[in-house]
Design a protein that fits this description.
Elements (H helix, E strand, L loop, with lengths): L4 H70 L3 H16 L7 H12 L20 H10 L10 H18 L4 H9 L4 H10 L1
Length: about 200
């Protein structure tokens, strides 16, 4: 039986359609696979960056802990620090208008508990007498003092003595006003704590 020409054409057309459908199906699968691979790669990059950020944060926290640990090892016994402050006050009083030793020691006790490495992470106040860095520098410059650093016992104490004496002079030795000025605001509780130690 003779196959008609148009039947052959239809058969070939169907074969072509099937081939094309298979091609498009495979191409679609490939595209979907590539999209999934790209998404997974982006997710991996995003997760890697997240881990790197966390690692950096942990490193910074570890460094801060190491600094605090070193500082804690450097903290001298309270009695030793207070004796050093007394010695510095005595040296000052021998060549200047005498300042109330008890007042200076009381401020150091309340401000830092005689810890020369004390630092307020919120305000930035530092050292034995909890100076703001800008205040400390201004006193050093005003009185032409030797600056060994805000955490140095001698430098911090000498700056505090000059600062307290300046306040005493400007407030006619009114301790309440001096302490309010030292703190930067009037706080009766703070004043009472210091006055109890004088």
């Amino acid at each position: 039986m003779q196959i008609k020409f148009h039947e052959v054409c239809i058969a070939l057309l169907l074969v072509c359609i099937v081939v094309l459908l298979n091609f498009f199906a495979e191409n679609y699968k490939l595209q979907q696979y590539q999209i999934i691979q790209k998404q997974q790669t982006l997710e991996r990059i995003k997760y890697t960056r997240f881990l790197e950020s966390k690692l950096q944060t942990l490193k910074q926290q570890n460094q801060q802990l190491e600094i605090k640990l070193k500082q804690s090892h450097n903290i001298q016994p309270t009695s030793q620090v207070s004796r050093q402050i007394e010695s510095i006050i005595n040296q000052y009083n021998s060549s200047h208008k005498p300042i109330n030793k008890s007042l200076v020691l009381a401020i150091a006790k309340i401000e830092s508990n005689f810890n020369p490495n004390a630092r307020n992470s919120y305000s930035g106040a530092s050292g034995l007498f909890q100076f703001m860095p800008s205040t400390y520098i201004s006193i050093i410059k005003k009185h032409n003092l030797q600056d060994k650093g805000i955490f140095n016992i001698e430098s911090n104490t000498v700056a505090a003595i000059h600062y307290i004496q300046d306040l005493l002079d400007s407030h006619n030795n009114d301790v309440d006003k001096v302490l309010a000025s030292y703190l930067g605001s009037y706080n009766q509780s703070y004043i009472n704590k210091i006055k109890r130690l004088i």
